[in-house]
Specification:
The complex is a heterodimer of chains A (about 110) and B (about 120).
Chain A: E1 3-6, E2 11-14, E3 19-21, E4 23-26, E5 32-38, E6 44-50, E7 56-59, E8 62-65, E9 75-77, E10 86-93, E11 101-103, E12 107-112
Parallel strand pairs in A: 2-12
Antiparallel strand pairs in A: 1-4, 3-9, 5-6, 5-10, 7-8, 8-9, 10-11, 10-12
Chain B: E1 5-7, E2 10-13, E3 19-24, E4 31-37, E5 43-50, E6 65-69, E7 75-79, E8 88-95, H1 100-106, E9 108-109, E10 113-117
Parallel strand pairs in B: 2-10
Antiparallel strand pairs in B: 1-3, 3-7, 4-5, 4-8, 6-7, 8-9, 8-10
Classes of the chains: A mainly beta (about 110), B mainly beta (about 120).
Chain lengths: ~110, ~120
């Protein structure tokens, strides 16, 4: 079955540090890949997505590239801010006709001034 | 409404009692999903409703869990004879399901109901 593995947290960084959160997946076919973010007290929000190999999703300074050869979708940001403190979830949707999202366990990021 | 609304936001219940969790999806979204977020775990798919079609219940963990969707809008997730392992955040999401793009961009989550079974 489909699965998503992401790095365990929590991750604590100083403001302006570089962020990488690793994500690898197992899926049949050609999945769509996502990063969702959950800010404290809020619902999950779509941060970025990619639907095919070598696609790069980007939003709010975050980026992730769909690497089919390594089945990875690592999240990066060059300079984090305190406001980026949240829980980040990597997820996939298996492809045409599929509506169910499969999530990783989430990585809590805390950014300190 | 403007977003997916869930109620209550928090629920504490005694072991063995039944609970009902409510989800009001975005107006016009015909697809509705329930997920469970347990401590230290990812989000776990529970059930999917699409229009008048039979729901996909493949993710329900036991027969104590059931859900219904009335009039194609509001949904209620019911947990009977609650157990401590049912403690989790229950998330509802809705989307337009017609195309992959609509699913991917329109998948909108509510803030969840935090259920604590004591």
């Amino acid at each position: 079955g489909d699965s998503v593995t992401q790095m365990e947290g929590p991750v604590t960084l100083s403001e302006e540090a570089f962020l990488t959160i690793n994500c690898t997946y197992t899926a049949t076919g050609y999945p769509s890949l996502f990063w969702y973010v959950q800010y404290p007290g809020e619902g999950l929000q779509l941060l970025l997505k990619a639907t095919k190999a070598d696609d790069k999703g980007s939003n709010k300074g975050f980026e992730a590239t769909y690497r089919k050869e390594t089945t990875s979708f690592h999240l990066e940001k060059g300079s984090v801010q305190v406001s980026d403190s949240a829980v980040y979830f990597c997820a996939l949707r298996s492809g045409a006709g599929s509506y169910q999202l499969t999530f990783g366990k989430g990585t809590k990021l805390s950014v300190i001034p | 409404g403007a977003g997916v609304s869930q109620s209550p936001s928090n629920k504490v219940t005694e072991k063995g009692k039944d609970v009902e969790l409510r989800c009001d999806p975005i107006s016009g979204h015909t697809a509705l999903y329930w997920y469970r977020q347990s401590l230290g775990q990812g989000l776990e798919f529970l059930i999917y409703f699409q229009g008048n079609s039979a729901p996909d219940k493949s993710g329900l963990p036991s027969d104590r869990f059931s859900a219904e969707r009335t009039g194609g809008s509001v949904s209620t997730l019911t947990i009977q004879r609650t157990q401590q392992e049912d403690s989790a955040v229950y998330l509802c999401a809705s989307s337009f399901p017609r195309t992959a793009r609509e699913i991917d961009y329109g998948y909108t989550f509510g803030s969840g109901t935090r259920l604590t079974v004591v």
